[in-house]
Structures are given as structure tokens and as C-alpha cells.
Structure to design on (770 residues):
């Protein structure tokens, strides 16, 4: 071969080699990139001593539009009060948020500040994704008992934003119209079921007193109310699904399906929450529906003046739940931890911010801020507060699925759907659900 | 004459030497040309290597690991594959759903789009307007918006049932009834016939008119002409659409995800949805990677079978009519 040929060949090979290198090192390059950024950040902090501090905090949250708008305003407000601190916000809906967050966690690129939920926080703490926030001084802002309850292994990983509770909203107007007694506070599960049976007799066809249950958390509070506790305890190492209670609970619903006390499966599957036409309660089909402090205000908007609330049915150990479920956390990979911590504290402390955020994340955790808002509360906000107030006395802990149990959560619903559509008995469903749970617990315990 | 002959030979010789010289020069050039070529396509080449080859290799590695996304992957050998094939009832279920979806929707779509293409192949006044009008919905194709529209149409209180109610018929909840849910998705797939139809139309235009004319002279009817001229002449196009259709419907995701969420009772639980839920809902990335490689194997072998079988029914004019 001629020299030229060699040269040409060599160049081609070189190209390929470069391509391979670029490919193989893409991960490494990225790291280098973040490192460089980190150095910049440090440089920024250092120059901060001399007065001008340029920090860009990334922040991510989920929620409805009203929450997005209020939060964006508040971020601007913070940037004005703290020159040099700017934000890269990102906001999504619930489903998208929890699809995106694990991929960010996997690539160690979670935002500096992020909204967290009680249903997931244990999973993220378990993997070291979240920064310990115990050293943030919250005295006079958040009730120390609340903080103590939220600690995981003695450390605080999320600053609570609001008080939240789960209870039942009911169509007051319609129940009164048909001469059905209204639910009373602290009703028991037996009273709840009997009330449904009685209401059936007085309601016209096509209307149903209560909804069907196919999800694990729908049943969890029943089991806990009767003293059988958490299905997934010890971080998922102990699994206990009480057979007797399970059969009693779901056989009651099987009876209700026959008696038309709950709507047929086909209709229930077409429900779409908060859709004016397809919402189970706003469409006039269901008389009661499970709601939280944060979500009940939509009902008031959809059917103004017709809705009232009561706490979840109770057993000897209590019923429903009432506690903080939404938090702001800081990423353990953040390059600006101090700035992030300052921001999350400010978020629940600043009164001006509180006026803008209002109840977009539930009842503000900071009593001072709530007190200022109280006078100007709208009926929809008051309903959320009432739901919290009626629930707090008998409240059970908020149950979340343990790390690694999302598969089981889906399987629970799928097996119960098979029961609803008449493909299998309650007992068959129990066996399968219990078996999968035991397998997962064994797997978790062996780790 | 003789002199001429020598002359010709000479010319031939000199031509060959020129050719060899040219080709030698060309050889040298070809490397340079190649290099220039690589440089020109490098944006795509780099994109392909970085965004396709690299993730694919990575997913192959991950398919042998337990990777819960929030923690690092742990090598588990073929455990994912054994679990999929022996212990996971949803694997069989989702495959069954996907196969019935493919078997129903692909022939339906081919038939439907061929019929529409034949209609649009007639020479009528304003035909281009019709073509545009009929192709137009395909531009918004398999999008989220169409899926949402479909849900509103086939819901228990949807438009379909409202229209049925005018005639006193009580419709079922098409997408919430396990026996009809998959059907609505098949219909949606068949309705998105635009691009298939355009390819058919192009194929139809390629068929020489003389064939039809001579068949008419021989007294062949319309159906006869379709069966003995249109179909054989169009068979390579049918084959092309079939292969693409099978591959596409195996990966159906959006409609199942938006309209039915895989339900009720897993009656529309497409394989792609199963894979997605494993990866992004249950955070089992290793398991999902294994599922993806199984899907690749299935689609690849089905395509291979399609190619093998095509020998018996696809007709290429260039092969002199040999099948």
C-alpha cells in the first residue's frame, strides 16, 4: 500500500477509535462535567463571602396548575429577597413525577430541592438519595411532635409543608333529599356498612351509597382499625395480611356488588376523578367518596355548597389518617446544600410566600401562616380544614407501601379486579396476594 | 479491414490500460471518499452509536442484573430470564394479548388501507382533495390526543353509546368491558391507516395499465382483475406493509397506556406496557431489560419467518415472474 493509502486507512481507524472512546466515556465525561460545575459552584460560594453569590438551585415538584403558578411566583420572590439565588424549576403531574425521579436518582442527578411524598420517602432515604435535614431550626414553625413523628431512624429527611388527612366526602344535598341520615363523626366500620345497606333502600336506581374497593390501602385501614397493624412492617421484612379480616372485608363488598350497593365494575372502571362528567361523586353516581384535605377542595368547586366531610370509618384502634405527607427534601448530591436548606426553611416561614402559596399544598404546617390565611379562606379551603379537624382525633398512622413492594401493590389491585369481574373468589385472591407478599418479605429479609 | 482491426484492438488496449489506471486512482480515492463520507454522516453516526448502540449494549448487560434503579445493578446471571419464563403469569398474559392484537389489527389495517387506496386510485375530479382529506387524520396519528378522543368515544357515557341510545340500544362500556376493550384498540390501530394507504397507492400507480387493458380484451371481470393482476403486482408492497405492520403493532404502547391502562383485568395488557410498568413503575430495570431483549428476539424471528414465507407469495416482476 502507498503512504497515502496508509494515511487514509489510519485516519478512518482513528475516527472509529475516537467514536468508540466518546461512546465508552460518555458516562465519565458527564461526571467530569458535573465536577467542573461543582468547582464553579464552590468558586461561587467563595466569592459569596465578598458579597456577590451566584447560585442556581434546581427544584422539582408535582401538582396541579394552581400549585405550579403559586410556586413559580414564590421562587421569583425568593430570588428578589436573596440576590444571586436563582432557580431552574421543573414541575410535573404525579404520575410523570414518579416515573422521572427514579431515573434521575439512578444517574445521580436529582434536583437540589425536590418535593417528596410520604408514600415514597422511605424508599429514597433507604438509598441515600436524600440529605439529612435535622440541623434546620424549625422551632416555632413546626410542632416538635410532628417533627419527631416524621423522623426516619432518628433523622429528618423532609421538611413537612402541610397538614393532611384522609377522610370521606359526601353529597349532603342528595342524601337529605332522599331522607338518608347523614354520616356522623367517628362512625365505625359496621355502622358504615349498615349505613350503606340502609341508604341503598332509599336511593333511586343508578345511584350508589358507596364505592367499591380494589386497592391495598383501601383495605389497610380496615386491618389497622382492628388492631392487625401494618401489612408491610419493618421496611417490608415482615408481611402480615390478616386472612380473617381480609375475607370479612372483601366478602362484604362481594355482597354489596350483588345488592347493587356499589356500582358495577364496568361503570366503576370508567370513573375519572375530578372530571365534571365522569367523577364518581360530581356525576351524581356515588354519594360518598374517599378524599384528602388537599383533594377535597375540587369537590367543592365541582358541586358548590353540596359537599360535606366526615372522617373515615373507625375500629377499636381508630380510623383514617391525619399527618403531613408532602415534604421538601434536599438531594444528597447537591452542590449547594446550605442554600437549599435555607430555601426550604424560608418556604414554610415567610409570610408573604404563605399568602401566595395559600392552600395549594394543603393546610400550611406553620400555624402563624395559617392564622393569617384563616380570615380569607374560601369554602373549598374550609372543607379541607374540616376534614383534617374531624380526622385528627381517631387518626391511624399514614400507611405507605414498603420499598420494593410496588409490584405487590399492582398485583393486589389486579387480583381484586379479577374478583370484581367474577373471575375468581375472594379466597383465591387472598392466597395469591399473600403468597407474593410473603415472597417479597423473604427477599427483603435476606438482604 | 485488417488495419482497422488492429486499430480497434489498439484502441481497446489503450482503453483498458486507461481503465486500470483509472481504477487504481479510484482505489486511492475511495479511502478519501470514505473518510469524507464518514465525516459527513458523523452527526448521525455518533448519534446512532451514542443513543442507540450504547444503550442497547447496556440494556443487554442490565438484563442479567437486578437493578432497582435507586441502587446499583447486581449481577444475577440468567435469573431474570428464568423468572420471566417460569414464574411470571403476566408474561404469558401480555404475550397472548399482544399476539391477538397483532393477529387482529394487522390484517384489518392492511385490508382497510388497500380498499381505501383502491378507491383513491380512481381518476375523479378533485381526487387530490379527497386524498388529502383522507390522509389528514393520520398526521395526528398515534398521538396522545387521539387516544384521549378514543376514550371519550368508547366510554360508557361516550359518543358511541349516545348515538346507540337514539336507537334505543343500551351500549356496554366498550373500554371497561374485558371482552370488548381490546377490540377498541384494534379499531384505533386500523383507523390509523394513512401511511400504509399512501404506500399502497404508490404501489397501485406502478401497475402498468396495459395489463388491465389486455385482461379486459380477454373478458376478465373486475374481481378477476383484482385477483390476478392487482394482488400479484402489488404483493411486494403488501409484504412491505405487512412486515412494518407486525413490527409496529408489537410495540403498541400509547393507546393501551392512555385508553385502558392495560385493563380491565389485563385484557389489554400489551407487552410494551408490561415492559414499561416493570421499568418505571416497579423500578425493576434489569427485569425490564430482559423483557425488551425477549421482545426483540420475538419480533426478529417473526420478521425472519415473514421473509421466508414471502418466497411463496410475493411476486417480483424483475425476477421474470418467478415466485
Amino acid at each position: 500500500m502507498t503512504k497515502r493509502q496508509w494515511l487514509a486507512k489510519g485516519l478512518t481507524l482513528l475516527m472509529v477509535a475516537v467514536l468508540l472512546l466518546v461512546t465508552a466515556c460518555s458516562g465519565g465525561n458527564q461526571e467530569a462535567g458535573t465536577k467542573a460545575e461543582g468547582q464553579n459552584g464552590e468558586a461561587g460560594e467563595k466569592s459569596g463571602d465578598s458579597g456577590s453569590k451566584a447560585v442556581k438551585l434546581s427544584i422539582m415538584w408535582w401538582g396541579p396548575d394552581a400549585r405550579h403558578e403559586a410556586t413559580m411566583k414564590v421562587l421569583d420572590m425568593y430570588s428578589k429577597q436573596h440576590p444571586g439565588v436563582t432557580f431552574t424549576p421543573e414541575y410535573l403531574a404525579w404520575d410523570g413525577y414518579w416515573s422521572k425521579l427514579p431515573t434521575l436518582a439512578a444517574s445521580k442527578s436529582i434536583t437540589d430541592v425536590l418535593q417528596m411524598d410520604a408514600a415514597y420517602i422511605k424508599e429514597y432515604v433507604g438509598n441515600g438519595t436524600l440529605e439529612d435535614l435535622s440541623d434546620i431550626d424549625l422551632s416555632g414553625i413546626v410542632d416538635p411532635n410532628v417533627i419527631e413523628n416524621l423522623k426516619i431512624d432518628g433523622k429528618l429527611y423532609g421538611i413537612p409543608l402541610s397538614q393532611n388527612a384522609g377522610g370521606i366526602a359526601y353529597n349532603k344535598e342528595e342524601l337529605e333529599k332522599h331522607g338518608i341520615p347523614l354520616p356522623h363523626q367517628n362512625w365505625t366500620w359496621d355502622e358504615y356498612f349498615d349505613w350503606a345497606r340502609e341508604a341503598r333502600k332509599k336511593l333511586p336506581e343508578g345511584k350508589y351509597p358507596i364505592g367499591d374497593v380494589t386497592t391495598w390501602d383501601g383495605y389497610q385501614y380496615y386491618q389497622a382499625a382492628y388492631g392487625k397493624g401494618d401489612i408491610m412492617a419493618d421496611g417490608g421484612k415482615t408481611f402480615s395480611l390478616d386472612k380473617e379480616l381480609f375475607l370479612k372485608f372483601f366478602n362484604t363488598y362481594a355482597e354489596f356488588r350483588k345488592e347493587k350497593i356499589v356500582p358495577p365494575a364496568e361503570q366503576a372502571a370508567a370513573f375519572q376523578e375530578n372530571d365534571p362528567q365522569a367523577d364518581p361523586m360530581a356525576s351524581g353516581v356515588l354519594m360518598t367518596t374517599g378524599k384528602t384535605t388537599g383533594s377535597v377542595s375540587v369537590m367543592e368547586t365541582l358541586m358548590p355548597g353540596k359537599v360535606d366531610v366526615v372522617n373515615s370509618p373507625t375500629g377499636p384502634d381508630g380510623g383514617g389518617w391525619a399527618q403531613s405527607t408532602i415534604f421538601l427534601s434536599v438531594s444528597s448530591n447537591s452542590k449547594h446544600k446550605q442554600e437549599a436548606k435555607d430555601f426550604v426553611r424560608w418556604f414554610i416561614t415567610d409570610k408573604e410566600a404563605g399568602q401566595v402559596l395559600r392552600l395549594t399544598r394543603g393546610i400550611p404546617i406553620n400555624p402563624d401562616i395559617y392564622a393569617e390565611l384563616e380570615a380569607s379562606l374560601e369554602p373549598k379551603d374550609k372543607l379541607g380544614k374540616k376534614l383534617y379537624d374531624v380526622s385528627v382525633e381517631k387518626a391511624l398512622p399514614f400507611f405507605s407501601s414498603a420499598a420494593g413492594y410496588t409490584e405487590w401493590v399492582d398485583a393486589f389491585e389486579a387480583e381484586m379486579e379479577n374478583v370484581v369481574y367474577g373471575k375468581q373468589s375472594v379466597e383465591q385472591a387472598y392466597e395469591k396476594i399473600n403468597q407474593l407478599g410473603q415472597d417479597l418479605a423473604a427477599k427483603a429479609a435476606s438482604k | 479491414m485488417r488495419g482497422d482491426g488492429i486499430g480497434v484492438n489498439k484502441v481497446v488496449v489503450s482503453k483498458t490500460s486507461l481503465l486500470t489506471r483509472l481504477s487504481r486512482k479510484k482505489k486511492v480515492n475511495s479511502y478519501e471518499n470514505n473518510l469524507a463520507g464518514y465525516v459527513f454522516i458523523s452527526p448521525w453516526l455518533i448519534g446512532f452509536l451514542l443513543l442507540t448502540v450504547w444503550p442497547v449494549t447496556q440494556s443487554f448487560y442490565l438484563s442479567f442484573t437486578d437493578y432497582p434503579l435507586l441502587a446499583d445493578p447486581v449481577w444475577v446471571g440468567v435469573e431474570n430470564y428464568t423468572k420471566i419464563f417460569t414464574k411470571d403469569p403476566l408474561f404469558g398474559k401480555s404475550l397472548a394479548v399482544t399476539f391477538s392484537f397483532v393477529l387482529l389489527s394487522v390484517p384489518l389495517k392492511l385490508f382497510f388501507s388497500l380498499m381505501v387506496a383502491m378507491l383513491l386510485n380512481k381518476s375523479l375530479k378533485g381526487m387530490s382533495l379527497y386524498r388529502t382529506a383522507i390522509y389528514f387524520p393520520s398526521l395526528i396519528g398515534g398521538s396522545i390526543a387521539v387516544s384521549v378522543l378514543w376514550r371519550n368515544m368508547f366510554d360508557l357515557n361516550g359518543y358511541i353509546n349516545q348515538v346507540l341510545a337514539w336507537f334505543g340500544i343500551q351500549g356496554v362500556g366498550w373500554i371497561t368491558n374485558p371482552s370488548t376493550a381490546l377490540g377498541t384498540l384494534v379499531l384505533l390501530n386500523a383507523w390509523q391507516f394513512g401511511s400504509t394507504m399512501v404506500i399502497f397507492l404508490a404501489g397501485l400507480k406502478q401497475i402498468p395499465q396495459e395489463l388491465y387493458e389486455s385482461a379486459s380484451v380477454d373478458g376478465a371481470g373486475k374481481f378477476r382483475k383484482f385477483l390476478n393482476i392487482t394482488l400479484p403486482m402489488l404483493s411486494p408492497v403488501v409484504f412491505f406493509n405487512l412486515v412494518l405492520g407486525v413490527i409496529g403493532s408489537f410495540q403498541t404502547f400509547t393507546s393501551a397506556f392512555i385508553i385502558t391502562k392495560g385493563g380491565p383485568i389485563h385484557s389489554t395488557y400489551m407487552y410494551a406496557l408490561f415492559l414499561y410498568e416493570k421499568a418505571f413503575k416497579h423500578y425493576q430495570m434489569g427485569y425490564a431489560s430482559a423483557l425488551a431483549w425477549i421482545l426483540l428476539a420475538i419480533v426478529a424471528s417473526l420478521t425472519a419467518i415473514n421473509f421466508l414465507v414471502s418466497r411463496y407469495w410475493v411476486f417480483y416482476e424483475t425476477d421474470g415472474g418467478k415466485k
In short: DSSP finds 13 helices and two strands in chain B. Chain B touches chain A through 39 residues (CB under 8 Å). Chain B has two domains: 2-62, 89-319.
